[in-house]
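protien #1 (seq + structre)
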Amino acid sequence: MAYIANDNKSNNFWILIVFMINPFLSLILSVKNYFSDYSKNIVWLFCGFYGFTFYPAKASMDSFRHREDFLSWYMKNDLSLNEFFDKLYGNSRLLDVFLPLLKYGISRFTDNANVFYGILGLLFGYFFSRNIWFLLNYAKRKLNKYEILSICIFAVTIAPWEINSFRFWMGAHVFVYYITKVLLLKKNKYIIGMATAPFIHFGLFVALLFYFVYRIAGNRLRIYVYMLFVSIFFNAISASQVQALIPKTSITQLDKKSDSYTSDEYIEGRESTATNLNWYVTLKSKPLYFITIFIILFLYHKKRKELLKSPYLSYLCFTIFFMAVSYMLMNAVPTFYRYFRMTLLMFYGFLFLFFLSENSKWYKNIYKFHLIAALFFSIIEIRIWFDSATVDTLVSNPVVSMLYQTYQPVINVIK
């Protein structure tokens, strides 16, 4: 793998030619040459191409509902912008304004759902690629196997195929993009960017709330680590107790939505859905979650002094604080699983940076177990990707896909 940035314009030109011939091949080359100046932009463009060739084959997918909703907006071609805003703010179900605005705007020009999802892919891909290369820019040498593993886990934790549930996971990447700059670069102006995340999905208001609680509490690494340790055993909190802890706001619909996520009906519905999933989908995350928590506890035990002196201490403290509370609550309220997954993303960002700056001998005996858990998680995530990635995603190109698409999910071909 190349680790010296290549500024040769001819290489940029040729990789664009490869992209126009086969975007998937250009993605492989860009990942292999991760320090090339074109890599992050090819990953960004591939996300857009994946969105353009994405097909929600199952009616149970969130993306299927968004596709139908987009088409219904197109049919209302006489709807003015003022009428749209009246409908948007007059409908108690619409709390997240970003995606409805996007659907309305794009549907004024086309009824092609491929274009709609191509734009979603580009938006997601921008923040996805920038989050990865923000970390890679800290590296001044070729990555070792420990660093490669941590950045790979970072990449697959909330991967581009999550455009299936676009709102929350897009919002999560936006939140991480800005909070990383707040906590690592110490630039508080990016709090404004963090504050945009709830407009993508109202659930990111919770993440914002946790950030402000953390700012009041400060860097209490020992307390946060103890909280994480306690959360392993003390996670039998009831939904009603969680509901009582959620502060009420002056936003009526936000309060109603928060209450619905902690209601018995919602929780029972999530449990019923989980019983219909394949065993490997249900269990895919558990080995990685357990070993991640073990790594945090072991790291604190072995490298406490280094952590307290680390320039990444604030980033780690917020991550562990948010992780501990999310893990403690997600059994009672399944929606907290999403926040735990966000903190997983952030922790592997920290671990990558810590490996770059500190001696990693402490990790040597953990690596093999960690690799197995990561491979198990990654393989199943890729299997899930095959439900929405089509044959066109892998073998077609932008020109051909505008003229013809198979709309055949990869998994159907494999089976």
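ok now protien #2
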Amino acid sequence: MIYQFPRSLVALPILAAVVLAGLGLLAILKRWPLRIPLVTFGLAVFFGGLMAPAMWMDRVVLDEEKLEQTTGFWWSPTVKGFRLAEAKFVQIVTRRDIKNRKYEAWVVEMKDGRVEEFDPGDLWERNGKDITDQLGARGIERR
């Protein structure tokens, strides 16, 4: 099973980039102050060059061997997850960060006694119920 963001959601930063680039072009043609096209082109690059590719590349793969998420920027992706054969059970907990904000964490106890904790990220969290159901079908219980 491969989980990805819906293409309609990925289209939003692309649309924002196009609109912002058009606004920047308009600002240049209308001879608005230089800061306006600089800001709009900067935001267009952010949405079109950073956010859209990151959302396009994000994926969570759950197959017979592993649960693995690839996330992050296109030039430096982060891969996290675990091998199903090594996992005993999964526990979903709530943690607090340095600024006292809540976030979801997955605590996985391995058969050899190790405990690994994962911050699942938006895509993983979004599909958490289905993922835990799939893990349960593969013999990994949720506590």
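The helical segments are 7-29, 35-57, 121-126, 128-137.
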